[in-house]
Amino acid sequence: MFQEARGLPGDPRFTAVGRGVTAALLAELEPLFAYALPDGAPHRPTDAELRSLPQAFTYAVLSDGSRVVGRTAPARGESSAPVRFHTHAVHIPVGVPLPGDRLPVEAWRSPHWATVTPAGGASLSDPLGALPPGPAPVREGLDDFAVSRGPWLAAVLSDLRRASEEAAPAGGPVVLVERRSADVARWLGLAAVALPRESAERLTFTTYTRRPGSSALRVVGVAPEDAAGAREAGLRVHVCADRPPVEATGDVWARTAARVWRSRAPELFQEARGLPGDPFAAGPLAVVALCAGVGLGSEERAAAAGWAAERPYALDAKRVGQLVEALTSPGIDDRTGSEFDAVGRLFGALDGRCPASVTAPLAAMLVTEAVRGGNGSLELPRRDAFVGPEGEAIAGVLGPEILTELESGAGGSRPVARTVQLLRVARLLGMNTRDLLPDVATRLAPALLRATEAETERPEGPGPSGASKPPVAPAFAPALLELLDEQFDVRTALLGALDRIAPEDPGAVARFLERVALPFTGTQALPHLRMCAEAPGAMTTLGRDRTALWHRILRAAGLSPFAEPLVLRTAAGLVWEDRAPTVEEARLLLEAATSDAHRAAGTWSRLADAALGAPADAEEAEALAHALLRAFPQEIQGRERAALQLLALCRDLRTGAPEPGWADRVRTLRDRAAPLEPPVQERAFTALAGRLLAPDRPGAELYAFVRSDDADLIAAYDRAARTEPTRTRLRTQPAYAADCFTVWTAHPHVGPAWTTTAAALLEEVLRPAVRSMSAELVAEVEETVGRTGSSGRANAFRDWNRSRTLGRLGRRIVGRVRRG
């Protein structure tokens, strides 16, 4: 233990040093007790001004593990130095506790700090060992100080807690800005009471310094004029002498500790340390605070309920009763969802362990919140939690509200979790909802599908299940399954409602069942739900084999399509969803049941889509169209009927003898079917052109075609005439070449489309074919033209054929003359 007195800052002197204090130790102590007057301090202060100058009360841990506690205070000097600085410090060796096992901060009010060096080696007073017994003298006034610093309490206590951790936090000391250094000591006194002893002992500090950025201590006090410099140094600064902070700290323990101090109940800190758990968990402190009547916020109450739920054995009956009373107080109006969830867990932990009279207020609070607060995630009490008068009372209050909301037609837009919660509470309170269930289930079933689609991302890949991502259960799933497990009548009604709507959107039902495993036990048939439940696994097993998938899903229904035609719609929706079947798959569908079954199921529209969406080279589409027109003459109407009739006409044009007028009929059906699918139009135009280019085509049909001057049809005819089969026939069959010449030179003034196309075909298709013929074949073409037409047409062919030849000969002669 030593005492040091200093004169001017530039001329310090150690005037008395205890034994065992080495020169190296003194060198380490020097910067700890450096003192500088605040800005604006008077040169020759009065006694009052001298007393108002800040004192530096310091506690530090030295490099060898020993500790030092000291006070540096201004004192009256000589004329040459009106103010001197005197430090009285106590060195505490390693492993030696403070006298009376005190904390260092408790010595800041000791009356035995010396202000002068004793003369003649007189014995020194002990400022640590002479402290008054008990905590009261040391803590005197801290309650009032805590109340006066209420706005800063939580934030400062949070930072002091972090500063007391075993590993010193990076970033420098916590800076407390106060006008009086004694108030910094009071802050440290608040922390010493609130923190566990080992944490408080790690909290090194000084109540006053002018150089906070260079301090190795964990907490420092500065005057207001030095706050800006501390901020510029990047330190954590609390200006407790200025306007209150705006943002609250997120440290729930610190907020709880602040409320304890403001309630003038510091004894609760020691009481909380007697409970199990982390020393800085908010739960134990919040529990003892609530039991002592201290008002806390929602997060702090949630921490208390959550801690007690995990350790119901840690509280005696008296404290349990006090905690329940505090949590269920009718004066609280700021409860949050997390608080209700914690209270629900607490009720679950206490239910059966405590008398019903103790837990009944918790149960009533939870049920009331479930009905009026709309909290769908609450853990509800068991049904027997309200047996007796408590149940009758709460049912009398909440029952009418529940029935009114369940009867409301707004159920379709009501969140699923809300409806599920209302049904569970109704059963919990013993209410009769049997008459409401059909309508409630009818509204709830589609809401389940919409909520599932909204809450979960639809997986990629074919079919309703996909294969790339595991299904994610929606948030309402656990409560829904509990409801169905609790209430058989609700399960029956809801499964029936889902089965009824499944044919309308089986893919959505399948995705829902993949995420929520509904129980299919019981005697209900539920064919559509069983098919939807079978689909994901079947798709995983069978992959892209949609024919095998179709049969497997139909078998899962357990009913024949003849007995329940709607299974056809459900199966088709599951296998093909929003895609059309192929023509082969459509034939399978058509043959799977009678036309009456398809008519009742509405699956005939998928068959029509298959025919109309088939590629242009799928000839089976024509036979399918013919079959569909015969099977569903009343159902297929409008544009689709005209398009299917056009496909059926294509079959007659290719293989049979269509009714007369087919050239005009193609045009008429095309116009009725607009907008026509491109493959169907391509197939029809190709069939028409091929039939018109056939040697045996009726002249009336050809004339009707030419007279129409339909640009699209004539373009298709032009394309067909330029194909290789037509060119080969022209080169090898003189009669066919003669017929084409007659057709392509007839009707020269019908219209521009035909005139232009016919002239091009004569020059670009027929002339190369005739030029490649032998003289005998050309003569036969000429003879056939004359025989089937007239001598004038034969002359026309001769002139047409000669004109090109003479033209080439003339150009050769002109070229030779020019070269000569």
TrEMBL record:
The name this protein goes by in its record? Uncharacterized protein
The region called Disordered is annotated at 451-472
Boundaries of every GTPase-associated protein 1 middle domain copy: 143-234
Q: Which InterPro entries match?
A: GAP1-like_C, GAP1-M, GAP1-N2
Q: Which residues form the GTPase-associated protein 1-like C-terminal domain?
A: 261-797
Q: Supply the Pfam families for this chain.
A: GAP1-C, GAP1-M, GAP1-N2
Show the taxonomic lineage.
Bacteria, Bacillati, Actinomycetota, Actinomycetes, Kitasatosporales
Origin: domain of life: Bacteria
Q: Which organism is it from?
A: Streptomyces nanshensis
Which residue range or ranges hold the GTPase-associated protein 1 N-terminal domain?
13-120
